[in-house]
Amino acid sequence: MTDTGGGRPRPRGTWWPEAAIMATAFALCLLGGALSVDDRSLSWPPVNAYLLAAATCAVLPVRHRSPVAAVAATTVGGVLVPPLGLLLTPLIVAPAVISAYSLAVRTAGRAASAVLLASATLLVASNVVFEFGNLSWQDASRIGAVAAFPLVAGILGHSTQNRRAYLAAVEERARRAEKSRESEARRRVAEERVRIARELHDLVAHQITLANAQATVAAHLFDSRPEQTRKSLRELVETTGDALDDLRATVGLLRQSGDAAAPAEPAPGLSRLPTLLESFRRAGLEVSVEQEGASRPLPPGVDLTAFRIIQEALTNVTKHAGTGSARVRLAWNRDRVTITVADDGGGTRTAPAASAGPGYGLIGMRERATAVGGHLSAGRRPEGGFLVSTELPLPPARDTTRRTSGEATSGETTSSEEPGDEKMGDAP
């Protein structure tokens, strides 16, 4: 690699454009040297013209590294034109024009303008000094053209510099936009991955916990109560079938748009709470429901969050509480609904085995509550048992209608005790 000036490397293999530029400048310089000073006619170039063309064209490659030096050297060559007995024309100063263009491309505007103005002034002054008293109108126009050519080349070079800067800015903006799009895509993928993991955890943990409880009941009653065993096994088959259905529905959400369409089902909400509680009752956990205030329809996201939190909290009771009963309470206020799930503390709470790794149930519940603008806390109660409490926002009452008394959130009121809201420690 070779340097082109301005800190940019010039790739190898580009010698032929440089050679073509030098050859063209050499030919133009010789053509200008062929003009006679006396009769302004075209004749064979003298030796001085060859020497001048060779000297000024030899410095052209320097314009990539040091354009100011190249302009200075070619300007000196133009100043020497009259003393060498040659006619100062735009052709014979072609190397100076090329150097002026390179200077304007690679140098800041004000500095380049100052150097080019000085170069044009020197060219004009040298011709006026050597031909003083013998200048005609034709000579004046020729000298004006000699001065104008480097200036015009400078203007073109400055335009090229601006165009390159504009294209570089456009490319930089495009790169930044692409980088921003990639970052946004990675962020959305990460968020979607967490959402899918949370959804799969809630589904699998719930169904597998119920299946495990039903299998345990069947094993315990296998010898003494075969009829009850068969009932538990039938319920186990039903539970595992529901688990497969839920997994298929979740996997269906991950299908690409070109895949075969799967039947879409509405996201679960509090309307499916009776079905959820019945599944726990089949697994041996008696769940009572208490409701305060007038229930209202929930936005889809909040409705799903409420359902999943109740599901996960009851799943944790089934797995760890060592008790046969739990209580769900829903308190409807003007701008929020408070949901609490507590076990009665009658059993011995167990912790998961160390090999099972950290539990993600409470983490997922907190994430769900926070995602819809709510808050969740969980922990052991002083009177015994474990409490999960969450507050979820409600839309303004004037924008909603009351639920009918037959909807799922209306359950039976079996207790008037309102559990305290303990700050949580992380439960498995």
List keywords for this structure.
428 residues, alpha+beta, five-stranded mixed sheet, rod-shaped, disordered N terminus
Describe the structure.
By secondary structure, the protein is an alpha+beta fold. It contains 10 helices and 7 strands. It folds into 2 domains: 2-176, no CATH class; 270-428, Histidine kinase-like ATPase, C-terminal domain (Heat Shock Protein 90, 2-Layer Sandwich). It is 55% helix and 10% strand. The strands form 2 sheets. The chain has a 5-stranded mixed sheet, with helices on one face. It has a two-stranded antiparallel sheet with strand order 1-2.
A few lines on this structure:
With 428 residues, this protein is of the alpha+beta class. The protein has ten helices and seven strands. The radius of gyration is 44 Å and the shape is rod-shaped.
